[in-house]
Amino acid sequence: MSKIVCERLLGKVAIVTASTEGIGFAIAQRLAQEGAKVLISSRKQANVDKAVKSLANKGLNVKGLVCHVSKSDHRNQLFQEAQKLGGLDILVSNAAVNPEVGGVLDATEESWEKIFDVNVKASFLLAKESLPLLRQSKAGRIIFVSSISGFQPFNLLGAYSVSKTALLGLSKAAALQLASENITVNCIAPGVIKTKFSSTLTTGPAEEIALSQIPLNRFGVPDNISGIAAMLASDDGAYITGESIIAAGGMPSRL
């Protein structure tokens, strides 16, 4: 059984996209450990089933469904399911893709469109479409998962880096718009976190180069990010909005 770390999120309902592995899974687990009812999702039913079973076996209150964030009917199903759980207090937009590696001007038009469709447009639409439910919450929270590459672009992840910079701007603009409604909007910018998604940087010939850019001289792990999300989602983060919290082992982060 997984112990509740604390009860900061007791009674809250959260959606975490792309949450069946890696950073998204860690965030979903931490929010549930702090008392939230959590809806997890990803594009594959098998992954959803596996993640739900894993978390439910720890005594956590989770449900899951398939959601491709670029599909409007899938997003709508997420919000309908949240409403069944009692509404929505926390939206964590974590889904991202990076179909190719290389410099930004080497990206194909097809890859550029896919990256911005999932990483930016879907994040915007999730935030926009969550508002009817978040407005019913006493303290709504929107959290975008950006990246250190949004501040300091990675040449291997050129187009992806630009998409993550766009999320920083989206967060600030949305925070300004929603502040009067007591809905906070923030970004988390992870550094190089050891996940399947980041394996091109954390394994093979790129590993030594990547480590040399990290003053702490180690890669992060998903749990280094999940606690930040829980803080932003809780009353402890009530006076933080329009900000980006960087967890990157000391990597340069000046935009």
Automatic annotation (TrEMBL):
Pfam entry (one): adh_short_C2
A GO term for molecular function: carbonyl reductase (NADPH) activity
Keywords: Oxidoreductase
Protein family per UniProt: Belongs to the short-chain dehydrogenases/reductases (SDR) family.
Protein name in UniProt: Dehydrogenase/reductase SDR family member 4
UniProt organism field: Brassicogethes aeneus (Rape pollen beetle)
